Amino acid sequence: MNALIKLSFPATHGFWEVPVLYEDEHLLALDKPAGLLTSPDRYDPQRPNLMKLLHAGISTGKPWARERALDYLMNAHRLDFETSGVLLLAKSKPVLVALANQFGSEKPIKEYAALVRGNPASDEFEIDARLAPHPKDPARMRVDPKRGKKSRTRVQVVQRFRGFALLKCLPLTGRTHQIRVHLCHVGLPIAGDSVYGGPPLFLSSLKPDYRKKKGEPERPLIGRTALHAETLRLAHPVTQAELTISAPWPKDLTVAVKYLQRFAGTPLAQPDTE
User: Fold this and answer.
1) Alpha-carbon distance 239 to 167, whole Å?
2) Whole-model pTM over 0.90
3) Distance (Å, rounded) from C-alpha 164 to C-alpha 161?
4) Distance CA 43, CA 33 (A)
5) CA 110 and chain centroid, separation
6) What is the per-residue pLDDT across 88-132, written as a single tens digit (0 to 9) for each?
7) How far, in Å, CA of 85 to CA of 250, rounded?
8) Does the structure show a pLDDT above 50 at 268?
9) In the predicted model, is pLDDT for residue 45 greater than 80?
10) Is 252 among the residues known to form the active site?
């Protein structure tokens, strides 16, 4: 089968080639690109989203859907609009229910790569801070010790740079925007996360002899929230075998880290970007 699923949204001339990371008769794992919603936006249902595009492809008999004989496909979890990486889908309702039970019990292990502004005091730490919707903006979350739901994120430092750090984040609960809000809460906002105060990463701030092109604004090295769902580990919902699914780093994150390695100090370790 084709390792790419091609999706288009004529209304906005949008086009995506979505890599298939894993597939069997029960599951389909995709590498969701940044800049595409997982499911419909409650405030603007007309925005393109991955599930709507997939369902349209199934209903119209697109080649990728025909060759898989798909008549059902649903996501077991979500990724934010700007977050890239592993997204797991079920090919039948019983499999979706089994996955929902796993995700609800917080058994799957999710590992994210996050590029943040600042440097943690410790190489390993845990953030335990209750989260709730922001009272003035329900699309945002905030730390709320009284009304918030229990939320925990384990964090490991992968590389340190001058002014930035590359982290591995393991959310132990599954709250909306959890990693983003938790890191902001401890003074480590994710680069490019304008919603939670993450500053953009510009080459001019790293390279001493940087020369700006006349008449052109400088673009950030990574033009979105620098968060990538790198690995998902869980029990297969049918066979119960241990399943590990990984998504390679997207080009923008790879480039940003390479420039940090070159101009902002020696990293502690090399990430696996293959």
Assistant:
1) 32
2) yes
3) 5
4) 21
5) 10
6) 999 999 999 999 999 877 777 899 999 999 999 999 999 999 999
7) 8
8) no
9) no
10) no
- Of 157, 169, 166, 156, nearest to 109 (Cα)? 169
CA distance linking residue 217 with residue 3, whole number of Å: 37
Query: Which H helix or E strand runs over 261?
Result: helix 251-263
Distance between CA atoms of 110 and 12, rounded to whole angstroms? 32
Q: Rounded CA gap, 69 and 201, in Å?
A: 44
Dig out the tokens for 204 from the structure: 């001019």
Q: What share of the chain is helix, strand, coil (3-state, %, to 5)?
A: 20, 35, 45
Nearest alpha carbon to residue 178 among 224, 132, 243, 222: 132
Round to whole Å and give the CA distance between 226 and 169: 12
Task: Catalogue all structural domains in the chain, each as residue range(s) with its CATH number.
Answer: 1-105 (3.30.70), 106-274 (3.30.2350.10)
Residue tagged active-site, from 24, 71, 80, 144: 80
Answer whether 116's CB lies under 8 Å from 198's CB.
yes
- The amino acid occupying position 38 is T
Longest dimension (CA), the chain: 59
